[in-house]
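Feature request, filed as a ticket because there's no other form

It would be nice if the structure record came with a short human-readable summary line next to the tokens. Right now we just get the raw output. Example of a typical job, pasted below so the devs can see what we mean:
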Amino acid sequence: MAHFGHETKGTDVVAAFPDAVRHGTFVITEPSKGGLGAAIALALAEAKPACLILVGKFQGDSQPVVDEINRRLPTVKSLFISADFGNFESVRGAAKILKELDVPIDGIIASESITGLQYEKTDDGIESQFQVNYLSHFLLINILLDTMPKRKATRAVLVASSIRPDAAVPNFDNYNFSDGETYHPLEAYAQSKLANVLFAKSLAKSSSSDGIAAFSVNPGNIKTNLQTYLSPELVRSWLQRRKDAGEEVPLNTQQAPKSLPQGCGTVLRALLDPSLEDKSGAFLDNCQVVSLPNLDSPAGEQCAKQLWELSERLVGQKVQ
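Raw output as currently delivered:
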């Protein structure tokens, strides 16, 4: 078994588990060129899956990825489906198209979407990062569950962010930040990504009888096209806000940088490594499972349950 860690690239993981990729169909959200989703798609393509389905808002952002796959690996089918993750009806429409393809989906990777924006609400009246990064993926994945083969090689991977092993149980009561009055872009980003961690834990439990596994991952301190939104002033104000609240310096500011190919490594290990079959619900960082005792405590499990119920109310339907 290869050793996976900070330096591991996505292509290293794919090369270690080619049979987990070959002939499979994978859905990747937000695969714009220069982003994490695009790098994941290109790494997976090396092992010749049957199909890569790229889901994002603008085809023009993803077309260079499709074109590169077609040029380098013409036997790999790739296609784009449009979905505005700031609009639940658009997400439902994309899910309907995916289901009409009538192909089993072996894996879903919910990739990064937005960060560092000023306060905005979506068409559905929800703080944009909470909806785009989390709620719309909650909706999409749950709609697509019945297209996923009932076996442990089938996985959903939620891209999150850094989290301390001793992270406290969160509270999502004020997901709209008092209509922006208490909003900070990086606090909102952190909230949306922590929601993905708890979603993976809940999904792992609810889908365990179907043999579908779920994981959340920190891709690491990578520079993607999303970070063009982040100014030094924005980061400094966030750090000062945390300091004023008596909190420790955020973990991601202390992490060694990673290249974009290295950022794919943890995502793809969660997606492909069969040795993780009994670790469904886990959080991975630097390609390794990280224990989160507070989030796995009864209080953490109750929080995850409440988040699931809140999410169903916000998307306007019960999903399981």
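Something like this underneath would help us a lot:
Residues 157 and 215 are 5 Å apart (CA to CA).
The chain has one domain: 10-315.
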